[in-house]
């Protein structure tokens, strides 16, 4: 299961958003079934971030969404950013 989330900080909330997103990295990467959990920032807009997530299957992704750290994120994200989340289906993906 691949998910990409695009997050654009609300006015004056960039630092808070970055802190929130960075706080997800370690606990998310340590979850069973997590293959990738990367945070990126847009070179053209320092207020825009991308979360790039990959899980072994839908069950691992569901477990992530039920975790305390993800629930904390959900409780705060609406105040900090505009968010678009994409659930992606593989078509031609390199298998290493």
UniProtKB/TrEMBL annotation:
GO molecular function per UniProt: monooxygenase activity
Cellular-component GO terms for this entry: cytosol
Matching PANTHER family: ABM DOMAIN-CONTAINING PROTEIN, QUINOL MONOOXYGENASE YGIN-RELATED
Keyword Transcription regulation listed: no
Keyword line: Monooxygenase, Oxidoreductase
Classification via Gene3D superfamilies: 3.30.70.100
Species assigned in the record: Sphingomonas kyeonggiensis
The protein's name in its UniProt record: Quinol monooxygenase YgiN
InterPro entries: ABM_dom, AI-2_Isomerase_LsrG, Dimeric_a/b-barrel
Residues of the ABM domain: 1-92
Domain of life of the native organism: Bacteria
UniProt key word Oxidoreductase: yes
One of the Pfam families matching this protein, by short name: ABM
SUPFAM superfamilies associated with the record: Dimeric alpha+beta barrel (SSF54909)
